[in-house]
Amino acid sequence: MAAPTIFVIDDHEIVRHALGEMLSVFGFTVETYDSADTFLQAIDQRGSGCVVADVRMPGTDGIELVRELGRRKIALPIVLISGHADVPMAVAAIKSGAEDFIEKPVDDTQLVAAINRALARTFEQQDLRKSQEAFTAAGVVALLAYHSGADRHAGGITPWDVAGVFALIWVVAGMLSEPEHVVQLFDHITMTP
After folding, report:
1. Which listed site, 73, 128, 138, 190, has its alpha carbon 20 to 30 Å from 16?
2. Structural contact between residues 86 and 51, judged by C-beta atoms closer than 8 angstroms
3. What's the rounded Cα separation, in Å, for the pair 146 and 152?
4. pTM for this structure?
5. pLDDT band for position 176 (50/70/90)?
6. Edge to edge, what strands does the sheet with 49-54 contain?
7. Cα(115)–Cα(52) distance, rounded to whole angstroms?
8. What is 157-193 written as a DSSP string?
9. Sign of the C-alpha dihedral computed for residues 26, 28, 29 and 31 taken in this order
10. How many Cβ atoms from other residues are within 10 Å of residue 60's Cβ?
11. Among positive and negative, which fits the CA dihedral 53, 57, 59, 61?
12. Alpha helices of 9-107 — where are they, by DSSP H?
């Protein structure tokens, strides 16, 4: 996997340059953009990283950027920064899905810590999603083995074996929202001839 990129978005060139240089010193790969609109035109689903964006910018502002990335299902955490912060703005930023909100002038240590937390949470979510996909794939294999009739009547795989595997897979993968679904799953698999 490629190293994560930090996307710095600020309409003030001096701030953009300073943040980019500071983050580079901390070992991050950095790309800078002068507006959220320019960033949205350039970004796609590839890679990983974190966005650091000013809240107040011409065109699409930082809070609307958070919402737009969510609409596009682009899983990049966003740390919003602002020189004109107030409590309602910070609340709106977090409610819209921002990972963190930091006031300017930005404290280097605070920003790097926020980025590291955001990246760690993103990597944990990606690992969880991969685990869920693996559990689901294992369930499909178990179902195919059962439906192929492989030793079904010769003491091999029984409907209860398959039902147990499926229930475990689905519960662990978080796919069952209600306990009744487990019962329905058992009933469906064990009733299949």
Report:
1. 73
2. no
3. 7
4. 0.66
5. very low
6. 29-33, 5-9, 49-54, 78-82, 100-103
7. 8
8. S-HHHHHHHHHHHHHHTT---SHHHHHHHHHHHHH--
9. negative
10. 18
11. positive
12. 13-25, 36-42, 62-71, 87-96
Residues in contact with 142: Cβ distance below 8 Å, sequence separation at least 6, in sequence order: 157, 161, 162, 165, 166, 169
**Domain 5-106 belongs to what topology?**
Rossmann fold (3.40.50)
Q: What is the pLDDT of residues 121-132, one digit of tens each?
A: 876 766 566 666
Higher pLDDT, 95 or 6: 6
Two tokens, residue 21: 């240089």
List CB contacts of 101: < 8 A, sequence separation 6 or more.
79, 80, 81, 82, 85, 89, 90, 93, 94
Q: Would you list the domain boundaries of the chain?
A: 5-106, 128-191
Give the tokens for residue 107: 């404290």
Residue 63 near residue 36 (C-beta atoms within 8 A): no
Q: CA 35, CA 54: separation in Å to the nearest integer?
A: 9
